[in-house]
Amino acid sequence: MRPSRRFDPLWMLGPTLVLLVVFFFVPLLQAAKSSLYEWDLLTPPRYVGLDNYRALIDSGELGHALGTTLIMSAVVVVGSMALGLVLALALNRPTRFAGFVRSAVFSAYVVSWVSVALLWLWVLDADAGALTALCRALHLPTTHWLGNPKSALYALSGVTIWKIAGYSMVLFLAGLQDIPRSLYEAAALDGAGAWQRFVNVTWPLLRPTAAFVGTTSLIISFQVFDVVRVMTQGGPVRSTSVFVYAIYEQVFLNLRVGRASALVVVFFVLLLGLTALQLWAWRKKGAA
Amino acid sequence: MSGRETRTLRSPLTDGVVNVLLGLVAAVWLLPYLWMLSTSFKTLPEIVRAPTAPLPSGLDLGAYRAVLESMPLGRYFWNTTVMALGIAFTQIAVALPAGYALAKLKFAGRGVAFGLVVATLLIPAQVRFVPVFALLAEVGWVNTMTALILPFGVSAFGTFLIRQALISVPDSLIEAARMDGASELRIIYGLLGPMLRPTLVSFFLFSFVYHWNDYFWPLVMTTDDAVRTLPLGIALLREQGTGVRWHIVMAGNVLLSAPALAVFAFAQRHLLRAVASKA
Predict the structure, then answer these.
(1) Fewer CB atoms inside 10 A, N or C side of chain B?
(2) CATH number, position A252
(3) What domain range includes position B146?
């Protein structure tokens, strides 16, 4: 359709574009610029070139943040996708019980990260927590889940999986419902078993959904912050200091805006790269 | 594998096993909430003596009283609600005309504008908070509701969703309204807005719950108690060196999660649609 007046699109898109520029694009460029300065928010910024990046690499902070974030993302993406898919397959039926379980799992996605973090802080408490008590009762080995540098990151990953498995479950369920039933009937007539039906019918048709779920869960887990801030504050011995927490720490605890901005730039580039890589990989697979 | 036809392919035995497993799954997701609720009704001696006792000895409200005494809960609740409502309304008000222009009008630069909107999906709050904080500090807006609402005034997801919904509205409808002398403003908010009701309700609830729950942005944008939001206040309960006073932390957590769970219970369908429409 033609606009009724020539400049109509301008005022219609005006508020959106102004907000995008002021609160998204300019800040992004500003972060890139600040990463070349030393700035404590109080005194005027001082140009230092690539020193911030060099310092982050030399101190090992960048490598460490990268390592924790990648481990956590890998565990969370694989865990929540696998769990979400299995739950979607098991719950894709019109019974009331299935509906009840679906709601129970999805509810965790709706409550806040702070609620979930506090809830699990108590469940995982080393002295009085329910999980610790359960493990003792079953004679399973137990540990100070959040206080042990070897287990803390995995404990946080587990909590994150608990929080977002409902999200991938819902998306996989929507994907399953789009698959025509006639395909299953045809496959069943051909004598295909449940596994063969999954491999030959369900999975190929779910692939676009899986690509979307994978990309978005990766982005969610890359941005994890609340559970770290509430449950471990990056500890013990920095074992849970993921990217966003490291950025936060640099700004608000160390007052090093330049260093934080350098982390932001690397974080943004990684986010872009991972998204592009994943979309590319799935498209290639889909075409093959 | 839905429907009766395919269900007959399963044996009753596998169905039984699957149901037991699903019962366990439900327990893993529901028991933590129940334990939170139970803990919140306990007293300090009970927590110390038998922390994992499944039920409290009575419905003691002491923990809730302690939460109310330690923070201005009403104000936090009000702040959070105002912020989340403000964001959700602003996003819809801004996205309707933008979605209309992107879906229905032909003009130079439409592709670019749409590309810019989608590109913001790649710029999360964690990437932009430092410069935005500096900007808002310069104009003296830190510790105001504006600092909490305005940076989220535009939602790429919302704009995209509204654009998609408007594409399926027939042009003839809009042309007829123009013939009747309706202004574009009236067509957008008076005609198309009500038509898109289901989409808008889903998006509104999604956005409201998301921002009601948000911790990161209020944490970095506020230092003042006057604009503090509920997730921040409740998280502080834990930081105040509560030690073993888990009943108080859990009472706070009940107050924090109950509204989100209530919205979920009443509007599950809408939230599910909003999430599913993202794909």
Answers:
(1) C
(2) 1.10.3720.10
(3) 71-278
Mean pLDDT by 10 residues, chain A (288 residues): 88 95 94 91 87 92 94 96 94 90 93 94 84 83 84 95 94 90 85 84 87 86 93 89 93 90 93 80 59
- Specify the pairing of strand A46-47 against strand A37-38: antiparallel
Cα dihedral: A270, A272, A277, A282 (round 10): 130
Helical pair A152-177 and A203-222, crossing angle rounded to 10 deg = 140
Domain count, chain A: 1
CA dist., res. A74 & res. A232, Å (int): 20
Count of structural domains within chain B: 2
A227's tokens: 């559970």
Query: Does any CB of chain B come closer than 8 Å to the CB of residue A176?
Result: yes
In sequence order, which ranges of A92-112 are alpha helices (DSSP H)? 96-110
CB contact (8 A) between residue A104 and residue B29: yes
The label of the residue with tokens 């160390």 reads A254
Would you say residue A85 lies in a domain? yes
**Would you call A97 an interface residue with chain B, using a CB distance cutoff of 8 Å?**
yes
Same domain (yes/no): B85, B51 = no
Are B121 and B53 contained in the same domain?
Answer: no
> What are the beta bridge partners of residue A47?
A37
Peptide bond into A236 cis (omega under 30): yes
Q: Answer whether A118 touches B (CB < 8 Å).
A: yes
Which residues have C-beta within 8 Å of that of residue A139, sequence separation ≥ 6?
Answer: none
Please check whether residues B35 and B130 belong to one and the same domain: no
B44 and B87 assigned to the same domain = no
For residues B63 and B37, is the Cβ–Cβ distance under 8 A? no
Domain span holding position A127:
60-287
B51–A128: do the CB atoms touch at under 8 Å?
yes
- Within a domain: residue B257? yes
Same domain flag for B105 and B34 = no
Determine the distance from the C-alpha atom of residue B214 to the mean position of all C-alpha atoms in its chain, rounded to a whole number: 8
Distance in angstroms between the alpha carbons of the first and the last residue of chain A:
39
pLDDT digits (tens, 9 = 90+) for B163-202: 999 999 999 999 999 999 999 999 999 999 999 999 999 9
Would the CB atoms of A122 and B35 count as touching at under 8 Å?
yes
The shortest C-alpha distance from A88 to chain B (Å) reads: 10
Describe the crossing of helices A113-123 and B246-278 by its angle, rounded to 10 degrees.
Answer: 130
